[in-house]
Amino acid sequence: MFVRQQQFINKEWTNVHTAPGFTNTGCSLVLVFGSGEEIIKPDVYTMLKSEYPNAEIVIGSTAGEIINESVYDDTIVVTAIAFERTGLRSASLNMNDYVSSYDAGAALMKLLDAEDLASVFVLSDGAVVNGSELVAGLNDNNNKKVTTAGGLAGDAARFQQTFTGLNAIPSPGNVVAIGFYGAHLAVGHGSMGGWDEFGPERTITKADKNVLLELDGKSALELYKQYLGDYVNDLPASALLFPLSLKDSGSKNVVVRTILAINEELSSMTFAGNMPEGGKVRLMKANFDKLIDASNIAAVGTAVTNAVSKPDLAILISCVGRKLILQQRISEEVEAARDFFGANVPITGFYSYGEISPLKESMSCELHNQTMTILTLSEI
């Protein structure tokens, strides 16, 4: 497996790294993460297709780009991969053609299903897709129980429109998936939040998918406000500082859920993922050092799941909420992952509207918010 990295920055393309043995014609997969404004320019896709004529080209908009140990805004990062012993198959669909996000996830997994399927990478629209439903559709049709990971595209901190595409200029509403095939791909995954829980555990007593209405039979929004103090005046923006931990009924697994919007009239809260009735939630607050340490823990977790500590490539997908909170310290969480992988492992990635990865205890993928999620690939 050979990797080349490029970046479009300050209005010009630069070569960041090219592994010995890499050839443009031998490249089979190109991952492109960048500013929505930049990646929809036709000349970007034209250049990529010309440079990598035999590759599947996956493009997604971001809330920030990651390349090696640095974080950027308003750039494009390109990671071109030439596999030696791993096959690929791609699939893409648009949400306008499906009744639900669940149906879209199911359709994608069925298109990629094969006896030698080894792993799936997903890059989804982040504005119109219900991430929880998408993940449920993927899981229910993951017949081989392979590792499935990826993320939801971003739109900086605007939360308006995201762009994704497969072998085309990216556009809204697309969900892209890449299947990896064969016995020579080692895949690692790790995901960690690093938030502090506080306050009592409460039960979701009324919700409609990702809209939370009641906790313990009381208004969820009013209960939430009681813990915010002066931050209540800055809602909904301040909600990024206080996500909720969610433990589904009958499960020990905990995921983080970010609040996207509040409705004072309905006294409701809209989250980036579903909030199932019967689930248990607690408030969370930011601990800067723990958020940064969580990135290193996620990196260590990738070696636990595939026993390869120095992979051929690490893909980091972190949450826009973490970026807005850490601000000037944001590069520290990428550096924390780099500390584990070392200087010679190529790193790419982006800041997202949701992260997709299995939890440690399960091969089923989950939708995460406010986490650092890492996928590693190695050919063996």
TrEMBL record:
Keyword Ubl conjugation: no
Keyword Transferase part of the UniProt annotation: yes
Residue ranges annotated for the FIST C-domain domain, each copy included: 220-359
Domain of life (superkingdom): Bacteria
Residue ranges of coiled coil: none
GO molecular function: kinase activity
InterPro entries cross-referenced by the UniProt entry: FIST_C, FIST_domain_N
Keywords noted in UniProt: Kinase, Transferase
UniProt domain FIST: residue ranges: 25-219
Protein name (database record): Histidine kinase
UniProt organism field: Flavipsychrobacter stenotrophus
